[in-house]
Amino acid sequence: MSKTDNPLARLQFTNRVRKRAQYEAFEYTLTPEGVQVRNGSHANPEDHEYLVTVQDGLPTHCTCPADARFEGACKHRVAVAIRTPILDAATTSIAADGGTTGADKRSIEDRISTGHDSPVASETDTDECEECFEDFPCWECVRTGKKPIPE
């Protein structure tokens, strides 16, 4: 995936939104309509659940008040965009025979468990990751400790 294909390059958001999307305790549930995002950082997480709609691999809408009120993507949309396995699972269509459509034949569960777009990271992988921006690491690099979350 090139940087122009990366959903983060196609979304506009502030540094504050980016940081909150990275550190808040979001929980994700895939639904036929999109991704249900629950913010576990709140005292009453059930009061902070919103539906993020994904179209063509891009989180386009969220039912939260901030997405309607402010310019740019809300933290829920950015949170879905930075978690590639969640975004992939939300964009994978189920075929009539129960399989998935598209070129990637790995199961949704396999992609979520590996935590990355690539089939399996090889031992020859360099520190350069096509998913990361210069100042914004992908979730897999953060999760595996390859790159820190910027301050």
TrEMBL record:
Residues 95-125 are annotated as: Disordered. The keyword Acetylation does not apply. Residues 50-85 form the SWIM-type domain. Keywords: Metal-binding, Zinc, Zinc-finger. Residues 103-114 have a biased composition (Basic and acidic residues). It comes from Halorientalis pallida. Pfam families: SWIM (PF04434). This is SWIM zinc finger family protein. The keyword Nucleotide-binding does not apply. GO terms for molecular function: zinc ion binding. It comes from the Archaea.
